[in-house]
Design a protein that fits this description.
By secondary structure, the protein is mainly beta. About 10% of the residues lie in helices and about 40% in strands. The chain binds magnesium ion. Magnesium ion binds next to loops.
């Protein structure tokens, strides 16, 4: 099942995506969903982020190839490195990524996102499947120069539109599946890995995070990016595709500040 959220007039609604057509969904996102009437072909529907989480928990340095690209001697951290991104940074597939007036180096980071389906606290690794609603593609957009300048990541990764999520939440797949993640800029492949190469896999991440904080239904864990996250520029189109989930597509536009 591929769950989407889309714009309907001034409101938004939950839908199901099947064979390129969006249908209304009836029921509860965290319970049972059934297919209603057709809304239209995907290209004619304005998608929003499929979830509106209370928080976005992101993981730094979680693929060995990304960890070692700048520091070949780096060893695996003892525990996952977690940080938070603000919910105000979330947009859906098709939305603009606003390149802020200020940073000079902004990267795209293609990542597998886990969507929590049930309140989770002190969850054991072997129980995590009961707490996962599904998976989505995400882009942990990062102003790299601000990241290094600040020594922490809130500003660099917290700008509005810096967390595209979508296009859908896919249920019925597992993070241990060898699914290919690809990040393309203007159609050119810039990052590629299978999602089973995570240093700390999804069960370990949920056990670790839920020991720190309560994960609410709809909360999102962005699991980290493989090597060579590409730099982006105004005018670029960035796509994050994960097999079995779909393609998250966003275009980069310049910030227009109010005068
Ligand atoms: Mg990242």
């Amino acid at each position: 099942m591929h769950i989407v959220r889309f714009k309907r007039g001034d409101a938004d609604a939950i839908g199901l995506l099947e064979d390129g057509t969006v249908y209304e969904a009836q029921g509860d996102l965290f319970g049972e969903l059934t297919r209603g009437t057709a809304v239209g072909p995907l290209e004619q529907v304005t998608l929003l982020s499929p979830v509106r989480p209370s928080k976005l928990v992101a993981i730094g340095l979680n693929y060995l190839d990304h960890l070692t690209e700048d520091a070949p001697d780096f060893v695996k951290p003892e525990n996952p490195i977690i940080f938070l991104k603000p919910p105000s940074s979330i947009v859906g597939s098709g939305a603009d990524i606003i390149y802020p007036d200020g940073p000079e180096h902004v990267d795209s980071e293609g990542e597998l996102a886990v969507v929590i389906g049930r309140r989770a606290r002190y969850v054991k690794a072997e129980q995590v499947d009961d707490y996962i609603l599904g998976y989505a593609c995400s882009n942990d957009v990062s102003a790299r120069d601000y990241q290094f300048k600040d020594g922490q990541w809130s500003r660099a990764k917290g700008f509005d539109t810096f967390s595209p999520i979508g296009p859908a939440i896919a249920t019925g797949i597992k993070a241990t599946d060898s699914l290919l993640l690809t990040c393309r800029v203007n159609g050119e492949v810039r990052q590629q890995s299978t999602i089973d190469k995570l240093l700390f896999g999804v069960p370990a991440l949920i056990e670790f995070i839920s020991r720190v904080m309560t994960l609410e239904p709809g909360d999102v864990i962005m699991t980290g990016t493989p090597a060579h996250p590409p730099q982006m520029a105004v005018g670029d189109t960035v796509e994050i595709e994960i097999e079995g989930i779909g393609t998250l597509r966003n275009q980069v536009v310049a910030e227009q500040r109010p005068s």
